[in-house]
Design brief:
301 residues, alpha+beta, Rieske Iron-sulfur Protein, 4 helices
Length: 301
């Protein structure tokens, strides 16, 4: 392998642990579903610490925990509002999570907010072990489904044993080469139907903006420019940035995440900065830049 700085790295054994495999000879993208989840963190006086970790049972789960902070305070961390990358109403989801936090912890001021992304396998069990049937020294660890702290420890033990040649009685449970046609059939069908719906449907639907002039500062839209769909973003200073709207993974049309100001692929979860740079795989090539003509563009219909 050659690094971006031109160095060559060789290894007898390689573990691909990049959430979505950075190269996917096993074609795991057909059995992995990406999920994004929002997080807010607020300062909290130590005497108001709820004193534990809590999770709600209802839809759009909320998880609450605290951590040490400075000046004798605690940091209240609330997660929730999980969704598929490429969802259009991320700002509204942030507002719902903030409202839930303020209602249950009055007076808290949100100090930080971010989002996390993970993948879930079609049978809900992580893929940890040999990458594919012909892999002799390449291993993978993915599909933790949001439980990275526990599954990460499990994967470390399992892969270390596999590389050392030791047998682990429970290795078969997590073997990426496993197939459970009955158990996975419905999940796989739903996943592929969603991908097909986006791959075809997003090429037919229109945009909320008719021309580049209709793209407001801080927003983005997919427009048809010269017969090609372009992802157009206008920054706060009014400058326009245009890149190809085709995800470099498998060609789905990206959507604009208004809250995080990023282009996201709804098919397999790739994420790109407004200038096209890769933020999250499985894509490993940036969206290509595009020049906008002087005349107005037409909406992507």
């Amino acid at each position: 392998m050659r690094t971006g700085h031109g160095a060559t790295v060789t290894a007898r054994d390689v573990v691909v642990a990049t959430h979505y495999p950075v190269f996917d000879r096993a074609l795991l993208f057909g059995r992995l579903e990406p999920r994004r989840e929002l997080v807010v963190a607020s300062t909290l006086p130590a005497d108001r610490d709820p004193g534990g970790m809590f999770i709600t049972p209802e839809q759009n789960t909320r998880s609450v925990r605290t951590a040490r902070y400075r000046d004798g305070q605690r940091l209240l961390i609330v997660t929730g509002e999980h969704f598929t990358p490429g969802t259009d109403d991320v700002t509204a989801r942030w507002e719902r999570l903030l409202a839930w936090t303020r209602e249950r912890f009055p007076g808290t001021e949100v100090a930080y907010r971010w989002a996390a992304q993970d993948n879930t396998t079609t049978d809900r069990v992580p893929f940890v072990g040999p990458f594919h049937p012909g892999a002799g020294h390449v291993y993978v660890a993915t599909g933790f489904g949001g439980w990275g702290m526990s599954n990460g420890v499990m994967a470390g033990h399992l892969l270390a044993a596999a590389i050392a040649g030791d047998e682990v009685p429970w290795a078969g449970l997590y073997d990426p080469r496993r197939l459970h046609p009955v158990r996975e059939a419905v999940s796989m069908a739903k996943l592929q139907a969603k991908v097909a719906r986006h791959f075809v449907g997003d090429r037919l639907r229109g945009s909320h903006a008719d021309t580049v002039d209709d793209v407001a500062p801080g927003t983005g839209a997919v427009l048809r420019v010269g017969g090609e769909r372009c992802a157009v973003h206008r920054d706060d200073a009014g400058a326009v940035h245009a890149v190809s709207a085709r995800c470099t993974h498998l060609g789905c049309i990206v959507h604009f995440n208004d809250a995080e100001r990023a282009w996201e692929c709804p098919c397999h979860g790739s994420r790109f900065a407004v200038d096209g740079a890769v933020l999250q795989g499985p894509a490993n090539r940036p969206l290509e830049p595009r020049d906008l003509p002087a005349r107005p563009a037409t909406p992507a219909t």
